[in-house]
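To the wet lab folks,

You asked to see what we're planning to order before we commit. Fair enough. Below is the target structure as tokens, and below that is the sequence we designed to fit it. If anything looks off to you, flag it before the synthesis order goes out.
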């Protein structure tokens, strides 16, 4: 376990100096050479709350959705005034459960196109229960190309234990429908869930491969603070699998998928020759978050929106951007993009890092090389299989967890 301890220390040191979020509203000014910017649109509505989910959500009602979409349009107008004719890259609908309101997603997209020129790809997150022929046809018609389906598991007992509202059969049908309708599909699986065995995890992964899913996102359960799961763990109500089993699950999934023609990133496995990838705008250095609780990284600022719907809408009505807190980006923040690219793709060129980022990451790379996490060839840094596992451990240090500061 010394290796795991070392990468955790490296992760903490990399985060040192990030600074605290300043709890006040700002009115950011955007540089004239901004160029292209991505948009993340947060849809906070859910029919059922998953105990592990850290994202802002509220119970769905048609009335709430109607009012929220009108407020979103107002926020789009506020950014149009500030950004002018800036080109919009990728647009990503996350949540919450965007697939609950497909008609409203069309309405939001139409409004966006009336204010900006969208040049990138459009993607959304979906719950298996919501995926049907009507929804797929509607969203494909307005240019949505990519869909991420939150399967998590095909095992009905596991799904019940984490309060998912779909069953394994619904997940199976949703994957088939999305692929039939021409979406590029990314499907999520989770491992190291309470009560989950290695056999169940591998059965889930095998079914994904048999279905021909081009991109499989298989990630460990992360107990975020302020979630029901985190409270249940602290109170002894829920017990997670031991670390050695989580490690075995990770290596088993990675080996199985690599042997079947998938390229391995940190938690993403992409079929060779898939032709596309499910990368989202939030992985770029420049994106703006629209909606309650959404976050933005743009013009040297990281800022988050007001979460509560009433306060969010009130700010829009007052013609003010609904920003609740912010921090100016420093060197610790700038390594986020390169680290995510290395994790996602499994390799990165030094020319992509840039001189300043390489200096900021020098100590981390020394540790990673010492632990045989990375190999170097010419101008490129590659992750090893051992490196992918240890980077998974490190990644948890970049995300809030039990007993850690709630960063956003």
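Sequence we intend to order:
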């Amino acid at each position: 376990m010394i290796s795991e301890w070392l990468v955790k220390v490296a992760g903490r040191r990399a985060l040192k100096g990030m600074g605290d979020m300043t709890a006040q509203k700002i009115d950011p000014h955007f540089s004239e050479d901004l160029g292209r910017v991505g948009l993340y649109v947060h849809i906070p509505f859910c029919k059922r709350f998953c105990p592990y989910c850290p994202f802002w959500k509220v119970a769905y009602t048609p009335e709430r959705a109607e009012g929220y979409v009108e407020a979103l349009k107002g926020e789009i107008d506020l950014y149009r005034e500030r950004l002018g004719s800036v080109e919009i890259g990728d647009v990503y609908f996350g949540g919450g459960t965007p697939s609950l309101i497909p008609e409203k997603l069309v309405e939001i997209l139409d409004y966006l196109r009336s204010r900006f020129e969208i040049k990138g790809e459009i993607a959304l997150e979906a719950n298996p229960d919501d995926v049907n022929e009507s929804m797929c046809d509607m969203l494909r018609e307005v240019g949505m190309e990519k869909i991420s389906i939150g399967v998590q598991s095909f095992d009905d007992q596991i799904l019940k234990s984490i309060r998912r509202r779909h069953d394994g059969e619904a997940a199976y049908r949703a994957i088939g429908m999305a692929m039939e309708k021409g979406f590029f599909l990314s499907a999520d699986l989770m491992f190291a869930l309470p009560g989950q065995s290695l056999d169940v995890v591998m059965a889930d992964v095998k079914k994904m491969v048999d279905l021909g899913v081009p991109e499989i996102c298989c990630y460990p359960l992360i107990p975020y603070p302020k979630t029901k799961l985190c409270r249940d763990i602290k109170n002894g109500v829920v017990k997670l699998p031991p670390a050695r089993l989580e490690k075995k699950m990770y290596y088993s999934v990675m080996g199985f998928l690599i042997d079947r023609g998938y390229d391995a990133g940190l938690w993403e496995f992409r079929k060779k020759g898939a032709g596309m990838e499910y990368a989202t705008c939030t992985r770029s250095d420049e994106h703006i978050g629209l909606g309650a609780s959404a976050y933005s990284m743009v013009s040297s600022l990281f800022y988050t929106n007001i979460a509560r719907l009433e306060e969010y809408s009130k700010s829009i009505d007052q013609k003010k951007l609904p920003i609740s807190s912010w921090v100016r980006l420093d060197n610790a923040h700038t390594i986020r993009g390169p680290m995510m690219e290395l994790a996602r793709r499994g390799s990165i060129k030094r020319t992509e890092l840039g001189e300043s980022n390489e200096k900021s990451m020098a100590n981390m790379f020394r540790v990673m090389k010492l632990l045989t996490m990375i190999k170097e060839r010419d101008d490129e840094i590659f992750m090893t299989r051992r490196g992918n596992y240890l980077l998974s451990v490190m990644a948890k240090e970049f995300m809030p967890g039990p007993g850690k500061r709630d960063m956003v």
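Structural context that might help your review: Confidence is low (pLDDT under 50) at residues 400-408. The radius of gyration is 21 Å.

Thanks,
Computational group
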